[in-house]
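hiii so um. not sure if this is the right channel but i have a protein structure encoded as tokens and i wanna go backwards to a sequence. like what aa goes where. can anyone help
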């Protein structure tokens, strides 16, 4: 069973005006499809074939560049589509809201720290909100397609929210204005999904 490009739960234009349809289409049908194809080619015929993507990343040989880049790219984009929604935005409720206040004092402070991590990641990469096994939350950024599931990467823990800050995620609409894209992203965050990931953290 090889990895498959996931279908989106919304149309390419559903996140406008925050993320434009052309960017979404290229990002999903070209970039994510590319990571998916290259991951399948990298694991085919190896001991990794048939393993879950989580297991592959958690036990990754960081010197295996093909699996590191494409396995990370496959997983990260799955998460990215999942944590966005045309009905998103606002603030989280319940357990996640409490955890954010415990770890960052307030939602506003969390937003500032997460935005800063995303804005200051040099070059291509991601910013993450991760749940640790004790229920605390941490923020970090990682280069390229690395993510905190990989051994020794970033803040560790289980990623419950991630923002892609590669230029391919925003350049058509925002050009070099990465902070504007980060600010817009908050209008499409699907907090129900982020909360579900928080409650199911492994
Ligand atoms: Fe991307």
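sure thing!! here u go:
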């Amino acid at each position: 069973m090889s990895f498959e490009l996931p279908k989106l739960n919304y149309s390419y234009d559903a996140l406008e005006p925050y993320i434009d349809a052309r960017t979404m289409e290229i990002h999903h049908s070209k970039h994510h499809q590319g990571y998916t194809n290259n991951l399948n080619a990298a694991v085919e015929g190896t001991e990794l074939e048939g393993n879950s993507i989580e297991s592959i990343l958690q036990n990754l040989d960081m010197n295996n560049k093909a699996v590191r880049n494409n396995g990370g790219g496959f997983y990260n984009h799955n998460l990215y589509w999942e944590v966005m929604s045309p009905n998103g935005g606002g603030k989280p409720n319940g357990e996640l809201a409490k955890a954010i206040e415990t770890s960052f004092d307030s939602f506003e402070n969390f937003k500032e720290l997460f935005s800063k991590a995303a804005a200051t990641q040099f070059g291509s990469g991601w910013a993450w909100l991760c749940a640790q096994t004790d229920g605390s939350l941490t923020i970090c950024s990682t280069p390229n397609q690395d993510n905190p599931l990989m051994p020794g990467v970033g803040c560790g823990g289980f990623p419950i929210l991630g923002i892609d800050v590669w230029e391919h995620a925003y350049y058509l609409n925002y050009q070099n204005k990465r902070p504007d894209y980060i600010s817009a992203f908050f209008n499409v965050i699907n907090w129900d999904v982020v909360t579900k990931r928080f409650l199911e953290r492994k």
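oh and The first strand starts at residue 125 and ends at 131.
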